[in-house]
Write a structure and sequence with these properties.
single chain; 8-stranded mixed beta barrel; alpha+beta; Sortase, Chain: A
Length: 268
């Protein structure tokens, strides 16, 4: 009788181990599925951020360049096809934030009987085109350096308070190095003598690259001063007044820890 009880006890213990082992395997399987799912989601987010946003911003930026060029030569803009069913237009959104500077692309209507005050143009509205032939860059220029309304559109943003294109002082621009069109991704490849072209309403200003600052802090405001000179590395920059252009972007790639700066001077 005792032998029978011992035999039964052994059998029950064996089943318990198998149940525990099956439960552990099931738990590991669930964890593996969760890890794979999270990995796929992260991968899709990376693809969207690095690849898809580039395509969207680049296409929209090139379309805006085309619109500007058509405006400058007096051609009507190319409008998207209208839907077959008409609908009431949405009221325009009002902006209480006036532009930092007067829009240089505005001309009063010659048919008006009296001068008409120009309408404030939104800060994110493009007014010029930046071209860097060596890099194949062609992007709109807009006022301000706000990420959502300017830089994430693939535009070059004009720092508020800096000079206008072609004027004395420092015409300073910012642009993304990675994602959202990444117009300034390869400005580290620019060398002394390379040209940077700025078009505003059909007038072209040609700047010639003179100096490059490979790395400085994000708070080094001296690089966009009227006479650009690094406040962190004073050996980099200029000492005499002139007509300058400054291109700034983040560095190293895929980070925003430091700033990369390229300077040029207006070609006479």
């Amino acid at each position: 009788m005792r032998a029978v009880r011992d035999h039964v006890r052994v059998v029950v213990q064996g089943r318990g181990r198998r149940v525990r082992r099956a439960g552990l395997v099931g738990l590991l399987w669930v964890c593996a599925e969760v890890a794979v799912t999270v990995g796929v989601v992260v991968l899709l987010l990376v693809v969207h951020q690095v690849w898809w946003t580039n395509r969207q911003a680049l296409a929209a930026a090139h379309e805006r360049v085309g619109q500007l060029e058509r405006e400058w030569i007096g051609l009507p803009p190319v409008l998207p096809p209208t839907p077959s069913t008409s609908s009431a237009p949405s009221p325009p959104s009002a902006s209480s934030d006036p532009p930092a500077v007067v829009d240089p692309s505005h001309d009063p209507d010659p048919a008006s009987p009296a001068p008409v005050a120009p309408k404030p143009r939104p800060r994110e509205s493009a007014y010029g085109v930046l071209r860097i032939p060596r890099l194949g860059v062609v992007v709109p220029i807009a006022q301000g350096v706000d990420k959502r309304t300017v830089l994430d559109k693939g535009y070059a943003g004009h720092y508020a308070g800096t000079a206008q294109p072609g004027a004395q002082g420092n015409f300073a621009l910012a642009g993304h190095r990675n994602t959202h069109g990444e117009p300034f991704r390869y400005i580290n490849r620019l060398r002394a003598g390379d040209e940077v072209l700025v078009d505003v309403r059909g007038k072209r200003y040609t700047y010639v690259v003179g100096k490059v600052l490979a790395e400085t802090t994000e708070r080094d405001t001296g690089v966009i001063g009227p006479v650009p000179r690094s406040a962190v590395k004073p050996e980099y920059g200029y000492s005499a007044p002139g007509a300058y252009i400054t291109l700034t972007t983040c560095t190293p790639e895929y980070t925003s820890k430091y700033r990369l700066v390229v300077w040029g001077t207006l070609k006479s």
